[in-house]
Design goal:
Keywords: Membrane, Transmembrane, Transmembrane helix. InterPro entries: CBO0543-like (IPR048147). By secondary structure, the chain is mainly α. It has six helices and two strands; from the N terminus they run H-H-E-H-H-E-H-H.
């Protein structure tokens, strides 16, 4: 596949990822932003570690002189998918349904990655395989979800505690 087509794929991923912003409901944008930034933090660490350990390489990539990872995947596509994942997370459904939600997102991302590894030079497995990808994607989605639940739970608890101790709230209760 020509390099022009591969850079076209990268451009398409950027456009698609940016368009996903419009799929996030207004009332979930803060949650999505926190998930996006936390996922970027995780992928910046894990992505660089995997590349530096020689487990996989990105032969065709943007910012090649700055980083050996895929800037598009690590800092846009993957975090944006995670933002969408968290915005629509089925928190009020059964545990099995929630598990299936993780499996669906993880599997779709892994299948796309395997297709990219097989038919492009955007990613190449060295000492890596689809199972490692699936597991790390699943784990990082789980880590991000836990972080968001703790972060917003702590914020919510702090607001309730402050509201309960303020003079105005005690007057409102009378």
């Amino acid at each position: 596949m020509s390099v022009k087509i591969q850079y076209g794929i990268i451009l398409g991923v950027w456009i698609f990822s940016l368009l996903l912003i419009f799929a996030i409901p207004r009332n979930k944008r803060r949650l999505a932003l926190v998930a996006f930034l936390f996922k970027q933090w995780i992928t910046s660490i894990l992505g660089h570690a995997v590349v530096e350990l020689g487990l996989l390489i990105y032969p065709v990539r943007e910012l090649a002189k700055i980083s050996r990872t895929s800037f598009t995947y690590e800092y846009m596509a993957y975090p944006m998918t995670c933002a969408l994942f968290n915005a629509y997370y089925p928190g009020r459904r059964s545990r099995w349904f929630q598990f299936g939600y993780y499996v669906l997102f993880t599997s779709v991302l892994t299948v796309i990655e395997v297709i990219m590894a097989q038919y492009t030079d955007l990613i190449r497995y060295v000492r890596w395989n689809w199972l490692w990808s699936w597991g790390t994607v699943f784990l990082t989605f789980l880590m991000t979800r836990v972080f968001c639940v703790v972060y917003f739970g702590t914020m919510h608890a702090g607001k309730q505690k402050n509201a309960a101790s303020s003079p105005r709230s005690s007057m409102d209760q009378k």
